[in-house]
Amino acid sequence: MIAFYVNPTAGSGRAQKAWHTLEPYLRQKHFPYTVIIDDNPRQALFALRKAYAAGPKALFVIGGDGTLSSAVNAVLGASSDKSAIRSMLSPLPFGLIPAGSGNDMARSFHIPRNPLAAFHLQLTALQHGRVAYLDLALHVPPSTETAEHHASLHLPSFPTLKHIDIQSKTLESKIDPASFSRSPLRSPRVALGFIGIGFDGEVVHGLEGVHDDALKGGLDDKIVAGIDHHKGFSLAKKSLRQLSYTAGVIKTLIHFQPFDLSIRIDGREMDLKDVWMAALLNVTHFGGGMHINPLGRVDDGLWDLIVVHRIGKGDFLRTFPRVFSGSHLRHPAVLHRRGHVFTFTVKHRLRELYAQQDGDLISLPQTVEILPRCLPFLLPE
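Structure (tokenized):
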């Protein structure tokens, strides 16, 4: 049996459309499967955890970057023990049918956008035992964080669970909301693709409440076109959601204040002034197609740190389009390092600072440790 988790809000409904494309094929080929679709994120993720524990041959996530990250963290629960995390994830591989807005993880993994093509390639990998093991990053928020500080991020309690399987039987049960942490930011979490401090975190914070799934979609739609000094902003107007992200970027550019940051990488410390953003990445792309980490590999036991610092707003605007080609790494204001353990300490800031992890707001990270070759994943050959 293969399990599917569909995020109905991902990609402004594209995940639902992808499932409607894939489901008739599964029925025609008599694939045994189970599917979880629910508008309530916490409820759906609880069902996903149970489905994964039941031991399917694989779990396919249909959605975007944030959906995949949420699914993996749902399987792990609140565990921060490295051995336990590896043990919980080791038996069953994940697959991804990209149906978000930016699909940067799929882009980094070379998974096609077409649902049937994506499924076929990963099913072939499963049938031939070609399972890759991806590096994860374990982030434990400060224990002093209070739930009240981020009360606006709390999700509502659950209605009735609906779990639909191939025979179209419906299993209903009541779920106790107390079984989940009231504040997901207090629980240890793993990142699959990226952790960002500064500019991108402030963009995510500014988008709170714009859409219910805004914090689940990663940085997918934040910047949809380049900027140059002749034409100014070139905004792609593909959807209201994209416009909301773009508006968040413009607002952040106007009001953002750089900060000073101390970073320790595998015991070696460096102090950086006037930092715009510090991004810790495993994937090669984020932000809906920005080639921010062209040297990244997902299974080498290392994550890449990209820091933008000591740059004025005018130079930032002129240089920004280079991130789509990956040539930004040659700019003197861009710092690139790699490592296993990263510790972040903010030294000076003029205003409140925000951070995000796979598109979710988090408290400012302290120590992030890479868990090498931890997540079994079906990658196209």
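The chain has two domains: 2-137+155-181, 189-373. The first helix runs from residue 14 to 28.
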